[in-house]
Specification:
159 residues, 4-stranded antiparallel sheet, 53% helix, single chain, 4 helices, 3-stranded antiparallel sheet, 25% strand
Length: 159
């Protein structure tokens, strides 16, 4: 789906903040492990401390460095029959949500999304939900309206 719509570039800022939060959480776990090991004077588990520190630094760093590649493969496309979503750069995933199965379309924006003036579109079916995260508000509303209109038309033809 190379001709699908890419997400706005500002989504990368949110992904970087997610990597930063992951780093801070992993670092807090590593520091907590260090304090616990010092408190209980256990020498057997010191390798876990270094493993935690390495994970706290290397994991988020790898995620941070891979954000441009991850961004390249995040796409969506709307047709009369379905909504196609593509994600993943190592493990590619393409999902086609049939328009006739759409029950609800929601828009949401948490604090980071609001800060970057982005919205998340959630497409709800009877069995699951799918998200397109990080769209401009105008595009998100237009997308929601388009999907709802296509779903109404699909239901009319089913009867």
């Amino acid at each position: 789906m190379e001709n699908g719509q890419p997400l706005p570039q500002r989504i990368k800022v949110i992904w970087r903040f997610d990597a930063l939060w992951l780093f801070l959480i992993a670092l807090a776990v590593a520091v907590g492990s260090y304090v616990a090991l010092q408190f209980w004077s256990v020498t057997f588990f010191h390798w876990t401390l270094w493993l935690g520190v390495a994970g706290a630094i290397v994991g988020p760093l790898i995620i941070f460095l891979l954000i441009p590649y991850w961004y390249r493969f995040q796409r969506y496309q709307i047709s009369d029959d379905d909504v196609e979503l593509q994600s993943g750069f190592i493990f590619r995933k393409r999902v086609a949500v049939p328009i006739g199965r759409v029950q609800d379309v929601k828009l949401a924006a948490g604090p980071l999304f609001q800060w970057q003036k982005l919205q998340q579109v959630t497409i709800q079916t009877a069995s699951t939900s799918h998200e397109i995260g990080g769209l401009d508000p105008e595009v998100a509303e237009q997308l929601r309206d388009q999907i709802i209109q296509l779903a109404k038309e699909a239901r009319q033809y089913e009867v």
